[in-house]
TrEMBL record:
Residue intervals of the Sulfatase N-terminal domain: 143-283
Highest taxon above the source species: Bacteria
Gene3D superfamilies: Alkaline Phosphatase, subunit A
Molecular functions per Gene Ontology: hydrolase activity; transferase activity
InterPro entries: Alkaline_phosphatase_core_sf, GAG_Ulvan_Degrading_Sulfatases, Sulfatase_N
Any Pfam family hit: Sulfatase
Keyword list, A-Z: Hydrolase, Transferase
Name listed for the protein in its UniProt record: Sulfatase-like hydrolase/transferase
């Protein structure tokens, strides 16, 4: 493949890891040692409140944002896209570089000579959606909660850099680890979910009154504890992954949106406007 002058300057493989539904305080409470080794963990904000629209933004190159005051939105976008020069080990990447397609995999593939791959866990991200644009391969995994299977499928190319997006499902409801039998997963009933079964599980909504259903503070705390446990588990998988990655690899770890565990009467995510749906962790850095 003939590469542009900018492509010859792109030195890094790039992994974008999305912990589905992982809200910021769950990540912090898990204290994941390996993931935190990449750099400072930031509280950022998702552009959307559920999986599909958030991933459209991510694949536009728009990662979860900070919330600066007295800044024009266009200036923030320009500044944020400039960070791709560091992530990719490249030069001269700007917001204008992504126009008119505004599609990160296409830009990486066509302009910088990357091999581009996606492995996703949630059915709403399946390969028949428009998300599958600009990828050499795009795979819906056999299980929704098995990041380790993704790690075993990672392949890198000596002759050109590689980009992966990994949508990780262990942190999504029911917050189940691969070895946990499905009959032991929590089952949620009594949720007013506008898109209740959109991703084969409850997305979220307003809780019914306690007298009508089983929701209580203890049960909701147990559900968040499951998400925290999932983050700790993923940290071990990430440690295994880091041992396999080439050293010239830059890794960004974040979430597509957060989750509600009873705050103001809500559970889950979806068509809900609440800060806990938008709060996500963000940490990134280059392997040394």
């Amino acid at each position: 493949m003939a590469q542009s002058p900018t492509a010859r300057k792109a030195q890094n493989n790039y992994l974008l890891i999305i912990l589905d539904s992982c809200r910021y305080d769950s990540f912090v409470r898990a204290r994941p040692k390996v993931m935190r080794s990449l750099g400072k963990v930031e509280k950022r904000w998702s552009y959307a409140s559920w999986t599909s629209p958030s991933h459209y933004n991510l694949l536009m190159g728009l990662l979860p944002h900070t919330s600066p005051k007295h800044v024009y939105a266009s200036e923030y976008y320009k500044h944020d896209i400039l960070r791709y020069n560091e992530r990719l080990g490249a030069e001269d990447i700007s917001f204008r570089s992504l126009v008119p397609r505004l599609n990160l995999p296409t830009f990486l593939k066509d302009s910088l000579g990357y091999k581009t791959h996606a492995m996703v866990s949630l059915p709403v991200l399946n390969p028949k959606t428009p998300l599958n644009t600009g990828f050499d391969s795009y795979r819906l995994m056999d299980k929704h909660n098995d990041m380790r299977a993704m790690v075993h499928e990672l392949r890198f190319h000596e002759e050109q850099p590689t980009f992966y997006i990994l949508n990780v499902g262990e942190t999504h409801y029911p917050y189940a680890l691969p070895q946990e039998p499905p009959d032991q997963w929590p089952r949620i009933s009594g949720v007013h979910g506008v898109f209740k079964h959109l991703d084969d599980e409850v997305v979220g909504g307003k809780l019914l009154k306690k007298k009508d259903k089983f929701f209580d503070d203890k049960k909701l705390a147990e559900l968040q504890a499951r998400q925290i446990k999932a983050v700790k588990y993923i940290d071990n998988v990430v440690e295994e992954m880091f041992d396999l990655l080439p050293k010239n690899t830059y890794v960004t770890i974040t979430a597509d949106h957060g989750e509600l565990f009873g705050e103001d009467g809500y559970f889950g995510h979806g068509p809900i406007f609440h800060e806990k749906v938008f709060e996500v962790p963000f940490v990134e850095g280059k392997l040394r």
